[in-house]
Specification:
mainly alpha
Length: 237
């Protein structure tokens, strides 16, 4: 069994697709099924938290609010005083990526973020979002002008370089996240296959995988904030 086939499809997806094909429906790719599952879990979690919200936060609500406060403070330090206005988008992307990274550690499930299509989709969303915010904040003429650089006669050189730089951000965001989560899942799967049944699960590797999942989420949202900050920054800053 190759490493690619190990992480290609989770057990749950295999069983669901077996039912779908038996009923005459086309199979659903694993990364789409896992992405829908992550979205459903986050929606259920949001409804439960909203249903039990208290004026004085306790328990899970207190933990989540502390995390959100840290993210908001980071947005203020990177983007500026208007950073929190982009919080809903950044928090949504971050929660999806974090849950997608961690769900692969659950038996019979797989990480949607170990598929390049999912990470590329997240990167493209951030790419179009920060360009939209830049155009909305600064106007078309001013936003396009900053691609030409500060010196007008260098515009023919700077403009193509800026275009390449922005396109490379999509590759950087998507490939970094995909490579780390895919490699992590492959190593965990191989350890499980090579370990005798009477030995415990590779706990140290799983702890490291949790740390990697959190770290990759942090890097993704931090870079997204930096891209937004560069897009909405005023000309003189």
């Amino acid at each position: 069994m190759s490493s690619d086939s190990i992480v290609h499809e989770s057990y749950i997806s295999t069983r669901i697709n077996h039912f779908l094909t038996g009923a005459g429906f086309p199979p659903v790719p694993d990364h789409i099924m896992m992405s829908l599952l992550v979205t459903l879990l986050l929606m259920i979690l949001a409804l439960l938290i909203r249903r039990n919200m208290q004026l004085l936060p306790q328990g899970m609500q207190n933990v989540i609010e502390k995390i959100f406060d840290m993210v908001e403070e980071m947005m203020r330090s990177i983007i500026g005083s208007e950073g929190p206005r982009y919080f809903p988008v950044i928090a949504t992307v971050g929660l999806f990526i974090l849950t997608g990274n961690l769900i692969g550690l659950v038996p019979f499930l797989g990480s949607p973020t170990n598929n390049i299509n999912v990470t590329l989709g997240c990167a493209l969303f951030v790419f179009f979002y920060y360009h939209y915010q830049g155009l909305r904040r600064r106007g078309f003429r001013s936003y396009i002008a900053h691609f030409a650089g500060p010196i007008w006669w260098m515009a023919p050189l700077m403009f193509p370089l800026e275009i390449i730089s922005h396109l490379s951000r999509v590759m950087s965001l998507s490939l970094r996240l995909f490579g780390n989560i895919f490699g992590e899942d492959v190593i965990l799967a191989l350890l499980l296959l090579l370990s005798p049944w009477y030995l415990p699960l590779p706990v140290p590797m799983m702890v490291f995988a949790i740390f990697t999942s959190i770290l990759q989420t942090y890097i993704f949202i931090m870079l997204s904030m930096m891209y937004i900050a560069g897009a909405v920054a005023e000309e003189g800053h």
